Amino acid sequence: MKNNRICELFKIEKPIIQAGMIWCSGWELASAVSNAGGLGLIGSGSMYPEVLRTHIQKCKAATSKPFGVNVPLLYPNIEEHIKVIIDEGVKIVFTSAGNPKTWTNELKKHGITVVHVVSALKFALKCEEAGVDAIVAEGFEAGGHNGREESTTMVLIPLIKKSVKLPLIAAGGIGFGSQMAAAFALGAEGVQVGSRFVTSIESSGHTNFKEAVVKANEGDTLLTLKQLTPVRLIKNKFFNDVQDAEKRGANADELNTLLGRARSKKGMFEGDLDEGELEIGQISAGIKEIIPAADIVNEIYSEFIENIKQLASLSV
Fold it and tell me: How far apart are CA 119 and CA 148, in angstroms?
């Protein structure tokens, strides 16, 4: 895509970024998206450092095109992750869930392009101060961990666009070309897509989880666990247990006990649809098939071009 800062920044053909999702975005998905002309991301949040190294090496072997790694800054082994990323020569890093000042300078010293994910204007301004190269603005519609402000993508993108000069990537509620066109109309120069790629063939999510996403209808996801870290989940037994606990007035410690360890792994990677945490966005209501990642990239982009042309043809 010509005259697009996101394509120029990442050296990609289509300004479509696959989100770095825990348990779902390994090297197979990242390389497939990159090979299709978008930007694939390895989601490091569910990986031990040496597992991350293996995924990076396999991704390098599977594609000659740019790819990156998503790094949640709250990860306990963050220093080891950063070292692996630098050692392996990764050129693009998306950071999230933390202060962008913490690692941006160190990463940029090694020639790494840094993008940070935010859920509010105040955090976008901090990103600009920290010297990141681009910003992902993620609206309330998104799956997984979300912002406490509950700002929707429709509201968030124009707010940030008015105040920040950095290239802006829209996320949250985007899975089809019409939504990509809407994001560009709001001021974005690229989109980050998560939920749609969960249901790709190359996603490392469990088949049970993918099928649950495809079966989801409008209203089947809700933001919960706001006392801890807000997260959007498909409603299931675990979700109902959380809701019941919150209605009883459970405090953060009690909720942490209920959450336990590896709850997202149980649901998304192991396929336990009752006791697992099933993180997915509102766009799941519109996802009705499990198809190759390349088909998803090409479908979104062709629909986007068609929608842009239709809008341009309107007489005023």
Answer: 8
Of 217, 206, 197, 213, the closest CA to residue 291 belongs to 197
Q: What is the pTM of this model?
A: 0.94
CA–CA separation, 29 and 17 (whole Å): 12
Side-chain-side CA neighbours of 43 within 13 Å: the count stands at 21
Euclidean distance between CA atoms 42 and 61, whole angstroms: 14
Q: By the 8 A CB rule, do 280 and 266 touch? A: no
Crossing angle of helices 49-62 and 78-87, in 10° steps, is 30
CATH superfamily of 5-204+285-311: Aldolase class I (3.20.20.70)
How confident is the model over 90-118, as pLDDT tens digits? 999 999 888 999 999 999 999 999 999 99
For residue 77, give Cα distances in angstroms to 59, 84, 167, 244, 274: 21, 11, 29, 33, 30
Are the C-beta atoms of 130 and 100 separated by less than 8 Å?
yes
Tokens encoding 16: 């479509």
Domain ranges of the chain: 5-204+285-311, 216-283
Beta-carbon count within 10 A of 205 CB? 28
| pLDDT tens-place string over residues 25-50 | 999 999 999 999 999 999 998 899 99
pLDDT per residue over 253-295, tens digit each? 888 888 887 899 999 999 999 999 999 999 999 999 999 999 9
Q: What is the pLDDT of residues 202-236, one digit of tens each?
A: 999 999 999 999 999 999 999 888 887 889 999 99
